[in-house]
Amino acid sequence: MKIALCFIISYEHVVVKEQIWKEWIEPNRDIINIYFHYKDASLIKSPWIKKHVIPENNVVNTTYYHMIPAYLSLLSYALNADQNNKWFCLLTDSCVPIISPLKFREMFFKYSDYSIFNWKPCWWNVNYHKRANLYLLNNKLHLGNDPWFVLKKEDVLRCFTFSVIKKDMYNTICNGGLANESLFAIILHTFNQLINVKKSPSHVTDWDRMSSATSPHIFKEGNKKDIDFIENFLKHNKYVMFLRKIHKDFPDEILNDFIWKEDHDEDIREKRVARIVRLERIFLWKKWIWGHYGFSRGVKFWSCYVIIPVVAIAATALWIIFM
Question: The pTM is what?
Answer without folding.
Answer: 0.88
